């Protein structure tokens, strides 16, 4: 990623990442505090933007995958009352050194099994395309920043504000791409 020398004739600074295409630009500048050059990195995405998940794959055999609102709570309660909890505790005490941990796991599995029997699985949530508004808003911001960049370039091509504006435009472009992807 760093192609130019950062100290003397050596390239000493590295940028490690698992997706090189996310790095849009790498610049170097002199540093008054060190004999190394400062590495400026521009990412093609905003790392502060939370990832939005529209549809989560739910495991039918987990507590998260159960639709409790449509479950038959009376039958669940009835079956839970029929469980011999003390007998299960004794089994755990006899079979292992970690009897308390094993008993907790056994309780969890027993409750899960009974709940799965009497409750349907959750269906994936299909969200309306609300993100459309978000994409429109992001594109509007990007358009405004592009106009500002043109003004800055015409008034003062050496302004430090130009780089900041370019960075914001790149981040917005990545956010728009991510929002479009999540709409599908």
Describe this structure in words.
It is a single chain. Helices cover 48% and strands 7% of the residues. By secondary structure, it is mainly alpha-helical. It folds into three domains: 1-43, no CATH class; 63-118, no CATH class; 129-183. The protein has a two-stranded antiparallel sheet with strand order 1-2. Strand 1 and strand 2 form a beta hairpin. Helix 1 packs antiparallel against helix 3 and helix 4 (131-155) runs antiparallel to helix 5. It is elongated. The two termini are 32 Å apart. The model has no long low-confidence stretch (mean pLDDT 81).
Radius of gyration, in angstroms, nearest whole number: 28 Å
Q: Number of helical runs?
A: 5
Estimate the mean pLDDT confidence.
Answer: 81
The overall strand count is 2
Structural class label: mainly alpha
What is the domain total for the residues? 3
Amino- and carboxy-terminal Cα gap: 32 Å
Lateral arrangement of strands in the main beta sheet: 1-2
**Assembly state here?**
single chain
The helix/strand order is EEHHHHH
Given as residue ranges, the uncertain stretches (5+ residues, pLDDT < 50) are none
Strand content: 5-15%
């Amino acid at each position: 990623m760093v192609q130019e020398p950062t100290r003397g004739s050596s390239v000493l600074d590295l940028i490690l990442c698992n997706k090189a295409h996310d790095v849009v630009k790498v610049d170097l500048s002199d540093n008054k505090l060190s004999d190394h050059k400062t590495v400026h990195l521009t990412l093609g995405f905003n790392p502060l933007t939370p990832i939005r998940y529209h549809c989560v794959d739910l495991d039918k055999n987990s507590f998260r995958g159960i639709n409790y609102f449509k479950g038959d709570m009376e039958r669940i309660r009835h079956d839970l009352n029929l469980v011999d909890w003390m007998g299960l505790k004794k089994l755990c005490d006899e079979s292992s050194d970690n009897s308390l941990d094993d008993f907790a796991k056994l309780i969890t599995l027993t409750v899960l099994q009974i709940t799965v029997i009497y409750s349907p699985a959750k269906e994936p949530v299909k969200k309306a395309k609300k993100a459309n508004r978000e994409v429109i808003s992001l594109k509007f911001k990007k358009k405004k920043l592009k106009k500002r960049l043109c003004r800055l370039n015409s008034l003062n091509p050496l302004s430090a504000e130009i780089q900041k504006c370019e960075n914001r435009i790149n981040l917005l472009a990545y956010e728009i791409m991510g929002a479009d992807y999540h709409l599908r």
